[in-house]
Design goal:
The protein has 20 helices and no strands. It has helices at about 15-25, 30-40, 45-60, 60-70, 70-80, 85-95, 105-115, 115-130, 135-140, 145-155, 170-175, 185-195, 195-210, 215-220, 225-240, 240-250, 260-270, 275-285, 290-295, 300-310. Helix 19 packs antiparallel against helix 20 (about 300-310). It starts with 13 loop residues before the first helix and ends in a 5-residue tail after the last helix.
Amino acid sequence: VYRGSVKDFPGFDANQDAEALYNAMKGFGSDKEAILDLITSRSNKQRVEICQAYKSLYGKDLIADLKYELTGKFERLIVSLMRPPAYADAKEIKDAISGVGTDEKCLIEILASRTNQEVHDLVAAYKDAYERDLEADIVGDTSGHFKKMLVVLLQGSTLSQAVPPSPSHKDLLEAGELKWGTDEAQFIYILGRRSRQHLRLVFDEYLKIAGKPIERSIRGELSGDFEKLMLAVVKCIRSKAEYFAERLYKAMKGLGTRDNTLIRIMVSRSEIDMLDIREVFRTKYEKSLYNMIKEDTSGEYKKALLKLCGGDDE
């Protein structure tokens, strides 16, 4: 069952849409309403086709024109929607490691939550877009166990087949709770290389034996970005919808909004599991994602995000 909020637009015509966007940007100022209505009601596959049609019809790059016409958060959101998912992820990671300092939260969110195939596509897109090796860039920008785990996740080689429960829970116990000091390599190996089904069984066993959830042990045994990454991996194994609902809530609660996080999640999950995220959000925070976005954002930016949200659950 499809759980995204954005679907293919019926009766889609790439040339017609390219022309409509061209007209919306022609002359002085642009018709932002028309741009947002069109782009948020097409699927990513259709948007990519519109980019190609635009190039054929006008000999121009649609993304470059949109960047020129739009500004701020609204521009970032619209441009992000125009990129194929792997290229959108590649751009986010490039931004996270460029310049001074690193946006570790962005690296954690993307690499802890993507499937093997999505990781492979991301690595290829990064190479294609920037003519650089993603692993080398991440290794150059991070350190310690955090770096090691990111490299494991970048292999996109978590075992997908169901593995019968093995002594992994005991290995994790011995790596953490029962050992003087922590064997981080063992945590990395098990959490980075086992299938989701297998790890869920391991977490259940761990709870029985250790008498506490694996998350509590990770908090007690690990620290810093490495701890945050491992917790994100565990959360995504348990429920990606819950992980993203929590990220969205944190991006909007309190003073100021973490717009990059909000944009990245709304764009990347709109054709995967936005309906599940909305459901979890409603249950967990006793308010709808739609309402929280509405209260927290404004203008065309708000309208576009609400379209991606796809409905109110109040």
